[in-house]
Amino acid sequence: MALLLLLFFMLPLSISASGSGDAFIGVNIGLDISDIPGPTEIVALLKAQSIQHVRLYDADRALLRALAKTGIRVTVSVPNDQLLGIGQSNATAANWVTRNVIAHIPSTNITAICVGSEVLTTLPNAAPILVSAINFIHSALVAANLDQQIKVSSPHSSSIILDSFPPSQAFFNRTWNPVMVPMLKFLQSTGSYLMLNVYPYYDYQQANDAIPLDYALFRPLPPNKEAVDSNTLLHYTNVFDAVVDAAYFAMLDLNFTNIPIMVTESGWPSKGDSSEPDATVDNANTYNSNLIRHVLNNTGTPKHPGIAVSTYIYELYNEDLRSGPFSEKNWGLFYANGEPVYTLHLTGAGNIFANDTTNQTFCVAKSNADPKMLQAALDWACGPGKVDCSPLLQGQTCYEPDNVVSHSTYAFNAYYQKMDKSPGSCDFKGVASITTTDPSHGSCIFPGSHGRKGTRINGTSLAPSNSTSSSCLSQYYYNGGFFTSSLGLVVLFLFAVM
């Protein structure tokens, strides 16, 4: 709850191939977008957000040229549809490296190559040539004296790990041992990393309530709710760590112990269809905010505490052309026009990566919230919360529209701004959420806004703090009747934590 309430900061750090050093957060850039931004627009957004690490799903020349001289560290990819040709011909691999890497070095800071993506699970017919493709690409880098600068690997779905909990029992699907063993030998010999796509959203969704939502979202758990590996007695407080440690143990099952892990994809969708009720803005915000803090704190995992697990968030933009469930279109941090889908929040990271660079955030009532809960929260804000709710009185600037959602939004936001957007000040027992859209309308200008709806102006106008509980709570009650004094005490009790 409180984790959603401080502006998101991202520390652009780095990781060494050996896994020592500091972790970084990067973003994936997919472009299945109908109104696709141009390369210069994409790079302008990256620079505005101080994003220092990106992963491309191909090696788009125009985008690589736009990234030149930015210092941004770029991972390029061999798409799956080019894998067979490269895996069967050293010359084809060398030509690919010449066109897509050497042509852009050193102006564009290419630091890694992903050879295919989730090949074992999405393109199993290409699995036999995957290691050959990796070796051919690496050989071309060696010939160009770039093998120390650019690491080569291939991202895998975490579904190739079987019996993943407890992590100490995990092993790779042994069908793929003829691929995994030589691949791990290559990663070990070249100082590269095992690339893994980790999606607690899917683990949670497929677990049929066996995984608590809080456990998937990195929310704090009481000790008795933590998952314990009975073999190692290690405690797990989130799905992400459990999956990463399962990969470590799966490598150990094949006698590999010193290969670091990089998470090439992780995230949470902000919207889904009726079968995906947990694909929400709040959950996406919570997951990504907590993931970022977890990674940048160099927390590591229970098996390898303090060992960097650098991670790329999936993804920069919502991709409206993606097929599949509705959630597939809604994993992005930004819309195609550069507007944030939501504002991530994180404390203590240091350098700025704010997907709302103006710090313009507002607290609004959830339109689908229980009206009684909204009313209780509204009465608390206008009473014990000491918000000046006089603009909501009949005839005043914010009276219309005269409904509990609109009036609650005004009161919630006034409290949120009055509290300097502090942790916990926009929750109200779950009926409020953060937005970057200014809710001001007409002559009703909300606290925190210096303009009309849609403006983006720096600065925060704090709500007056000299109101007292003498503001009549019943003036803001709807649908007939008033709260009794006893109910007012219940309201005070429920929201005293605010």
Automatic annotation (TrEMBL):
Tell me, what is an example of a GO biological process annotation in this record?
carbohydrate metabolic process
What is the uppermost EC class here?
Answer: hydrolase
Q: What is this enzyme's EC?
A: 3.2.1.39
Q: Report how it sits in the membrane.
A: Lipid-anchor; GPI-anchor
Keywords, comma-separated and alphabetical: Cell membrane, Disulfide bond, Glycoprotein, Glycosidase, GPI-anchor, Hydrolase, Lipoprotein, Membrane, Plant defense, Signal, Transmembrane, Transmembrane helix
The Gene Ontology terms for molecular function here are: glucan endo-1,3-beta-D-glucosidase activity
What SMART domains has UniProt attached to this entry? X8
From the UniProt annotation, give the residues forming the signal peptide. Answer: 1-17
Q: Where is the X8 domain?
A: 361-446
Q: Where in the cell is it found?
A: Cell membrane
User: Which InterPro entries does its entry note?
Assistant: GH (IPR017853), Glyco_hydro_17 (IPR000490), Glyco_hydro_17_plant (IPR044965), X8 (IPR012946)
Provide the reaction this enzyme catalyses.
Hydrolysis of (1->3)-beta-D-glucosidic linkages in (1->3)-beta-D-glucans
Kindly indicate whether the keyword NAD belongs to this entry.
no
GO cellular component terms, alphabetically, are: plasma membrane; plasmodesma; side of membrane
Q: Where are the transmembrane segments?
A: 476-497
Q: Name one Pfam family in it.
A: Glyco_hydro_17
UniProt lists the family membership as follows: Belongs to the glycosyl hydrolase 17 family.
In Swiss-Prot or TrEMBL terms, this protein is called: glucan endo-1,3-beta-D-glucosidase
Q: What is the lineage of its organism?
A: Eukaryota, Viridiplantae, Streptophyta, Embryophyta, Tracheophyta
